[in-house]
Design goal:
By secondary structure, this protein is of the alpha+beta class. It has two domains: 168 residues, Phosphorylase Kinase, domain 1 (2-Layer Sandwich); 215 residues, Transferase(Phosphotransferase) domain 1 (Transferase(Phosphotransferase), domain 1, Orthogonal Bundle), CATH 1.10.510. The chain is 33% helix and 15% strand. The protein has twelve helices and 14 strands. The strands form five sheets. The chain has a six-stranded mixed beta sheet with strand order 5-9-10-8-7-6, sandwiched between helices. The protein has a two-stranded antiparallel sheet with strand order 1-4. A hairpin with a 5-residue loop joins strand 12 and strand 13. Helix 6 runs antiparallel to helix 11, helix 8 packs antiparallel against helix 10 and helix 9 crosses helix 10. The N and C termini lie far apart (57 Å). 43% of the residues are buried.
């Protein structure tokens, strides 16, 4: 049966991930010889093959060998080119100066800035509470850890011990997208940057849905989980809620996960999910990129808008041809109206009630690249109902 070898490889990965301690690189698909035993801290080991990555990638995974040796961690020695590193807690404690410079905090825990021995800056996520129990930790490592794409955050390594679960990422100097959209003291993104951010996120999601060995559904697409590098290239981050879907399956039953305001209707109804839940969340995110404000925020933009739920405003003004008034006022009208109309159309198609009416992320990429034209979308009934309750 074709599923059995894949399952064995996956279980082997999770088993050793629990307590692996130091580093050496084992190439993807490389047969391990007797001197290359995979050794865990409790002395157990396993031999065999391990294959990783997307359908077309040749990634490597870094595992531990039984060597009584201290490691001076740098990005080059730790990654072995393109692998995942099992760091020791003391190494990360030293790199972060005992976790003193906090970059952010959320329900998952806290993120700290750190510096490796070669002066490479890193971001260390220290999981807290329920996220330390392993499920979210393993989901993040086995999803983003085995993928490579310019619009996905790069996982450098991890630390797993009984009382601490830590994930080590490349450092993003411009932090998260929500800071630039909603905060008054951050750099305002011009229209061209916003459009390229929207396109980059779409490409990253299309890769997760369509190009990996298994379809990876992120399940929590929102501005807080989009990080920006030094060139404002977007990186999709925080895969703790990600759901794997084998290519032989079209949908999956799972517990509700995600953030209110970005949840597709099928989450609420308790039905099986598909990658279209990410498409819905992406549509909501697009509206916030255009407007520079949260969809749930009550704000009168014109006398006629009153307290209308913003996604409903967008759908209505698309029909009226008045999309210019939807753009973030901080841009002072400096916007490409053709691109604005294109983005608003994409967003409204993405948030359709029926998942079958939503485009795939691959189709979204083609639209944003100007390769496909879209018609005016219908008003989503559910949003219209929500909009009425907001106005009441």
């Amino acid at each position: 049966m074709p599923l059995f070898p894949s399952l064995c490889r996956f279980l082997l990965f999770l088993y050793i991930l629990q307590d692996c301690a130091a580093t050496d690189t084992i190439a993807s698909g490389q047969a391990l010889v007797d001197s290359d035993k995979l050794v865990s801290s409790n002395g157990k080991y396993a031999l065999g093959f391990f294959q990783t990555g997307s359908k077309s990638s040749n990634n490597t995974l870094n595992w531990c060998r039984n060597k009584r040796k201290r490691y001076n961690f740098t990005l080059e020695t730790a990654q072995g080119g393109s692998g995942i590193v099992p760091f020791r807690y003391t190494d990360l404690q030293h790199a972060t100066r005992n976790f003193t410079e906090k970059l952010g905090e959320g329900g998952f825990g806290s993120v700290f800035k750190g510096v490796l021995a070669d002066s490479t800056t890193i971001a260390v996520k220290r999981l807290a509470g329920a996220y330390q129990r392993g499920k979210q930790f393993r989901a993040e490592v086995t999803s983003i850890g085995l993928t490579q794409h310019i619009n996905l955050i790069k996982l450098i390594g991890f630390c797993s011990r009984s009382d601490s679960k830590l994930l080590v990422y490349e450092y993003m100097p411009h932090r998260s997208l929500d800071i630039h959209l909603f905060s008054g003291d951050a750099e305002i993104l011009n229209w061209n940057t916003r459009y390229q951010v929207a396109l980059g996120i779409a490409r990253g999601l299309a890769y997760l849905h369509e190009s990996c060995r298994d379809c990876i559904i992120h399940c929590d697409v929102k501005p807080q989980n989009i990080l920006l590098d030094e060139s404002f290239i977007p990186k999709i981050a925080d895969f703790g809620m990600a759901k794997f879907l084998g290519r032989e399956f079209s949908r999956a039953l799972t517990t509700i996960r995600g953030t209110i305001g970005y949840l597709a209707p099928e989450w609420i109804s308790g039905g099986a999910i598909t990658p279209k839940v990410d498409v819905y969340s992406y549509g909501m995110l697009l509206l916030e990129i255009v407007s520079g404000r949260k969809n749930t925020h009550r704000e009168c933009t014109t006398a006629g808008d009153d307290d209308t739920y913003f996604p409903v405003q967008v759908a209505s003004k698309l029909l009226l041809g008045d999309i210019g008034s939807l753009v973030d006022h901080k841009l002072h009208g400096d916007v490409n109206l053709n691109e604005d109309e294109r983005v608003c159309k994409v967003a409204c198609w993405c948030i359709q009630d029926n998942e079958l009416n939503r485009p795939t992320m691959g189709e979204v990429v083609q639209v944003l690249e100007g390769l496909i034209e879209l018609d005016i979308p219908p008003m989503p009934r559910l949003l219209q109902a929500i909009g009425g309750s907001h106005s009441a």
